[in-house]
Design goal:
The chain is an alpha/beta fold and 100 residues long. Helix content is 42%, strand content 24%. The longest helix has 15 residues. One of its GO terms (molecular function) is protein-N(PI)-phosphohistidine-sugar phosphotransferase activity.
């Protein structure tokens, strides 16, 4: 089974990216996907993406698209608010499955 890499990004790389990371793991594992999630600050994203090579980015803050180096981005706000978590997880899962 392929392991998908996800980079969660927030302003400080501590609080909201950690929540988003845990929810990603939980909700995508329930959907039968194997995921590895790493967290970082928004200012680190541009340097982290070429090294980590994530399949997707889940951001809880604004991130400049040029910093993403073409990586598909999803808004992680539903993982923080609880509103629309299943829908977001379904969207991320569908995208990741399309990469297989």
């Amino acid at each position: 089974m392929k392991t998908f890499r996800i980079l969660t990004i927030c302003g400080t790389g501590i609080a909201t990216s950690t929540v988003a990371a845990e929810k990603c793991k939980q909700y995508l594992t329930k959907r039968g996907l194997k995921v590895e999630v790493v967290e970082c600050k928004a200012v680190e994203a541009s340097g982290k993406i070429p090294v980590y090579s994530p399949h997707v980015v889940v951001a809880t803050t604004l991130v400049n698209d040029s910093a993403l180096h073409g990586t598909k981005k999803f808004s992680g706000l539903p993982f923080l608010t609880g509103v629309g978590m299943d829908k977001l997880a379904d969207e991320i899962a569908a995208y990741l499955q399309s990469l297989e």
